[in-house]
Amino acid sequence: MHIGIATLALFVLHIAFTGFELSNLFFVAVSVLIVWQGLFGFFLRWKYSSADLKKYSYLVHAQFASGITIGIFGWFGHLLID
Question: For residue 21, with 0-12 CB atoms within 10 Å meaning exposed, 13-18 middle and 19 or more buried, which class applies?
């Protein structure tokens, strides 16, 4: 939970320092993925206990795959800016 809040705070600070540029499609994709990951993570914490999440580990792997995609899209987005 704390990692998600820290990620969201860093994302907002990044936007505040660099500007909100919608012409970069990777930025839009990363924004949508971060909102998706936040909502899905909130749903997982609300719906399942820690013991239940161990049974349904594919849900956690979906979060992991979203995080990897955010990293890849963020990297390509920064390459387009430079």
Answer: exposed
